[in-house]
Amino acid sequence: MSLHVVVGFGPAGAATARLLAEQGHSVRVVTRTGRSPEPGIEHLALDATDREGLISAARGAAAIHHCAAPPYHHWVRAWTPLVSSVCAAAEATGAVLVMLGNLYGYGPVDGPMTEELPLAATGPKGRVRAAAWEQVRTRHEQGRVQAVEVRAGDFFGPGVTDGGHLAGRVVPALLRGKPVSALGDPDAPHSWTYLPDVAAAMAEVAGEERAWGRAWHIPTGPARSVREMADRLAAEAGTGPAVVRRIPPAALGLAGLFSPLLRELKEIRYQFDRPFVVDSSAYEAAFAVRATPVDEQVKATLDWWRARPTTG
C-alpha cells in the first residue's frame, strides 16, 4: 500500500483520510494545528502554503488529496497561494494531485450541470474556484503534474456540521421536533453529495490514471429539495412532519451585518432560489463508486447526530 497525503481535516479531509487508512494505506494529514495520531493516520502541524514544508511532507507519496479550504470570507485572497503550494508539492514529488472542487465555478445555469459546461461564474468566489482548477489543469497539460478534480454538490452526511445547509441549522432542530429555516426556495430541487461518497471518489480517482487531466462530478443521487430532505430526516427521526420556513431575504441581509459567513452567502443565493442539479453520469459510466441510496444516507446521518453530546 502507498503513502497518501491529505491536506485539510474538515469533513471531507477527515472522511478521505480515514477511508484511505481503512484501505490499508499510510496517511499523513497536514493541518495548521495538527492532531493526535489515529490508527494508520499521522497528523502533521504545517501551514499548507509553506511550499518547502509541504514538499517535504509529500516526499514518497503516491497522491496528495487537497481538501483544505480557507475561511469562507477569505476565499478570494487565500485560494491562490494555497493551490500554488499544493501544485508545487505535486510537481516536486511526482504525487498525483487530487483536487476537491465544488460547483461554484459554473455560475448560474439552466438545466443540470455537467463537466462540459464552461466555468463562467461571475461572482468572486466562483471565479476563484474556477481559476484554481484552471491553474492545476494548465500544469497537467504542460506535463508538470498529474492531476484530477472531483466536484461535489453541497455536503450532506455524518461529519458535516456548521458548513452544511442540511446540517447544524437543520438536523438538531428536526431531532427536537422544531421548525427549520431554509435559504432560498425550500421546494427547489437541489443536489446533495453524501460525504462518504466524496471520500470514496477521492480515493478511487487517485489510482485511476484514465481519470487524470479533467474534472469529474462525484456520484450524487437525484436532486431533492430542502423540504423533501427535511421530511425524510424528520420521518426517520420520528418527529415529522417537518416544518420548513424560508429565511426572508431582508432577515438574511440584516444577519449579514454581524456575520461574515452569512454576508458571503449572498453570492450563492442563486443555488437555492432555483433548481441546482448536478449530473454525475460521466463518473458513473467510467468508475466504480456510486451514490449511496438516500435512505441509507438519512439513517447514517441521524445516527451520527444522535451520538453527538450537543444534540441534547
Kindly describe this structure.
With 312 residues, the protein is α/β, with parallel strands linked by helices. The protein is 39% helix and 15% strand. It has helices spanning 11-22, 51-58, 75-93, 124-141, 171-175, 195-206, 226-237, 249-256, 260-264, 270-273, 281-286, 294-306; strands at 3-7, 26-31, 41-45, 63-66, 96-101, 147-151, 154-156, 180-182, 192-194, 215-217, 244-246. The chain has a seven-stranded parallel beta sheet with strand order 3-2-1-4-5-6-10, with helices on both faces. The chain has a two-stranded parallel sheet with strand order 7-9. A two-stranded parallel ribbon has the order 8-11. The longest helix has 19 residues, at 75-93. The termini are far apart.
Task: Kindly state the percentage of residues in helix.
Answer: 25-40%
Please indicate the percent range of residues in DSSP E strands (runs of 2 or more): 5-15%
Instruction: Give a short account of the largest sheet.
Output: 7 strands, parallel
Number of strands: 11
Order of helices and strands: EHEEHEHEHEEHEEHEHEHHHHH
Question: Quick recap of the structure?
Answer:
This protein is of the alpha/beta class and 312 residues long. The chain has helices spanning 11-22, 51-58, 75-93, 124-141, 171-175, 195-206, 226-237, 249-256, 260-264, 270-273, 281-286, 294-306, and strands at 3-7, 26-31, 41-45, 63-66, 96-101, 147-151, 154-156, 180-182, 192-194, 215-217, 244-246.
